[in-house]
């Protein structure tokens, strides 16, 4: 447990303290501790046995879009370099064997990085639309940080769309 980052150490310590309180506290303390322990374990999809034994288990990480697969894989590799990550068929799942500490760290990092990725992807899409003069004023998302979009626009190559001669677009 010494090589854990402080947040993961706190999760394990809290789980073990809650278990102790659930075993030894007053009736009210036991009930409260059991509820908090259950909530904590459910948050990470763990059991108390997982926390106590720290064995390697096959873990599943689900992603919504195929482009998130690379983010998921790199987050896993940032915790455990060179680990084998498997994909089954067309399912949007990454599978790998991690111990409890590694699993918790990956889950926490994924929560942060997938949200950040989604936000930056949205900014990129708007920058791309603006760079290529595709924006329609009524449909512009005003919640996006204009400065970050402006910076992105500078780095995007402008696409040069040229319809083929004689081709007409039918609506």
Give me some keywords for this one:
single chain; elongated; two-stranded antiparallel ribbon; 171 residues; mainly alpha
| Count of helical regions | 6
Oligomer: single chain
Separation of termini? 64 Å
Strand content: 5-15%
Output mean pLDDT. 81
List unreliable stretches of 5+ residues. Answer: none
Spatial order of the strands forming the largest sheet = 1-2
Structural class: mainly alpha
What helical percentage do the residues reach? 55-70%
Main sheet characteristics = 2 strands, antiparallel
What is the N-to-C succession of helices and strands?
HHHEHEHH
Topology:
Elements: H1 6-24, H2 27-44, H3 48-53, E1 57-62, H4 69-79, E2 93-98, H5 100-131, H6 146-155
Antiparallel strand pairs: 1-2
Helix pairs in contact: 1-2, 4-5, 5-6
Summary of the model, kept short:
With 171 residues, the protein is mainly alpha-helical. 56% of the residues lie in helices and 7% in strands. It contains six helices and two strands.
